[in-house]
Structure formats: C-alpha cells, structure tokens
Amino acid sequence: ARITPLPVGCSAPYGSMAASGAAAVTLVQYVVLRGDLVRPPLSWPLGAVVAQGCHAALAAAHTHRQHPDTRAYLELGGAMRTVVLEASDEAALTTLAETLKQHSIDHEVWTEQPENTATCLALRPYPKDQVHQHLKKFKLLK
Predict the structure, then answer these.
(1) What is the CA radius of gyration of the chain?
(2) What is the rounded CA–CA span in Å between residue 70 and residue 107?
(3) If you average pLDDT over residues 84-113, what whole number do you get?
(4) At a CB cut-off of 8 Å and minimum separation 6, what does 57 contact?
(5) Around Cβ 45, how many Cβ atoms within 10 Å?
(6) Distance (Å, rounded) from C-alpha 42 to C-alpha 25?
C-alpha cells in the first residue's frame, strides 16, 4: 500500500493510526442542550433550540480548532460522531460547566443574547473515554 504524506501542518486522522498498529480512537463531540427550553413556560420553537446546539458546537470547534483531536475530528467529514444530551435546566448546565472546568475539559457555553441566558454547552471533540464519566448522568435529548 502506498502511503501519501499529509500536507505540512495537518495532523494524521485517528483512523489512519489503526493501519500503523495503534488502536483506533473514537472521537466524539458532546453537545448538552437545556431540555426546559422547549417545554412550558419557555416553549422555544424547536428550530431555535437546534440553533443553540449548532452555535455551541461551532464555537467549541472554532475555539479549539488547533487541537489535534479537533483537527482529526473535522477531517472525518461525514463520519463525525456527535452526541446530543439533555440538561434539565440552566442550573444543571451551569453545574456541568463548572465540573468540566474543574477537570480541565475544553468546552464552550453558548449564552443567548440579549437575554444573557446559558442555553447549551459543547465540548471540543474528545476521545469518548476521556470525558464520558463527566456526562454519563445526562440522557440523550429526546
């Protein structure tokens, strides 16, 4: 098999590590949205809530764009894995953000303006086993 060198400054995608004998690493971007936004009394439109998740995910990827895990994740294209979880309310989201900060887990909290309301947070892409323990109490968003 012919190995094509990557352009200067590009990190090797994690999938290519398996070919060299290293175990493949599953990169995941976790997005945690407030579930109370779609329920009364707030009753935000679904599209507005989805936009919050998009903003947070893009902010996390942009802020940490030079991290090798983020670069490798973005190189995956259609094979990117994103997990969307639900925080019950703003207090739960804020508590999670503090926990992530205490454990030096890179993330971005999206705060909607002009309301100044924290609506979502997203981690930069991580190997699942590095961050899952901090997120396991949150259920998939439904």
Answers:
(1) 17
(2) 12
(3) 97
(4) 29, 31, 82, 122
(5) 10
(6) 39
> Tokens 């949150």 label which residue?
138
- 69 burial (CB, 10 Å; 0-12 / 13-18 / 19+) is buried
Give residue 85's pLDDT: 98
Q: Which fold has domain 36-140?
A: Bit1 (3.40.1490)
* Cα separation, 45 vs 106, whole angstroms: 29
Residues 68-95 have pLDDT tens digits of: 999 999 999 999 999 999 999 999 999 9
Strand-pair category, 126-127 with 27-34: antiparallel
The Cα 90–Cα 10 span in angstroms is: 38
Q: Which two tokens stand for residue 35?
A: 């579930």
110: its two tokens: 């999206």
- Which tokens belong to 132? 């899952």
What is the domain partition of the chain in residue ranges? Answer: 36-140
CB 127 within 8 A of CB 70: no
pLDDT exceeds 80 at position 4: no
Coil, strand, or helix at residue 31? strand
Short-list 29, 4, 24, CA closest to 14: 24
